[in-house]
Amino acid sequence: MLSAILVAVIATMSTWWVSHVITRTWLYPLWSGFLVALAMGEPVVGMKAAAYIQLTYLGWITAGGTMPGNLMVAGVFGTALTLLSGADPILAPTFAVPFSLLGILTWQGYMTLNSIWVHKADKYVEEGDLTGIRMMNWIPSGILSFIFNGIPAFLLVYYGGEYATKALAAIPQYLIDAFSTVGALMPALGIAMLLTYIGKKKIIAFFFAGYFLTVYLHLDTMAITIFAAIAGILVYFFTSNANSEEA
């Protein structure tokens, strides 16, 4: 019972925006999955499962408003189900991905309903009611996060993974394939939308530089980040010097 309650709290906090004010690490399986593992009393195995899930979503990004998968749901539910089933941690992504795809729907429902409180808050703004504004920002979104994420997480841990596994198995394969296809297209759409912002004469060269460093020189993300930081510093100093001379 205690483990189920703790996992429900973790699932709620991972999506509720209040937790992100402190740290955005709640978003990532490496942290949320680790907390789930602690709550379920298997930190080492759970951490391994969370790490495998994190690797699956290493390139996860919501650029352009797209969401290829619900990372928070994947980390919490994937880790919990791995521990409940006693499976090898390397199989954690196979549990996490279906939950992540279904999590897209719950996220859309969550955000759609949250828009109601925004309009309510607007009315309180017109009335100058600060207490009402704060209540609309805090309470309803937390309750919805508990309904969409906390309760399913509690039921998963309390009743065991057998029911969740059966529920996932009952989903038609064509529906899972459809979610997978949409999830694969979403990152491309997000990148395309992102390019509309960075596709400027002074910026686009850096994008292609990063692309060729990755494809042809096979540099990892850390190496490219270091090069990007150096380039950014040089551009800043050269730009500052040029502006000073003009002044």
Main beta-sheet annotation: none
Number of helices: 11
Q: In what range is the share of β-strand residues?
A: under 5%
Shape summary? globular
The helix content, as a percent range, equals over 70%
- Helices and strands, in order, run as HHHHHHHHHHH
Write down the Rg.
22 Å
How many domains?
2
Instruction: Quote the distance from N terminus to C terminus.
Output: 69 Å
Structural class per helix/strand content?
A: mainly alpha
Low-confidence region ranges: none
* Mean pLDDT over the full residue set: 77
Tally of DSSP β-strands = 0
Oligomer: single chain
Main location: membrane
GO biological process, one term: phosphoenolpyruvate-dependent sugar phosphotransferase system
Keywords: Cell membrane, Membrane, Phosphotransferase system, Sugar transport, Transmembrane, Transmembrane helix, Transport
Membrane topology: Multi-pass membrane protein
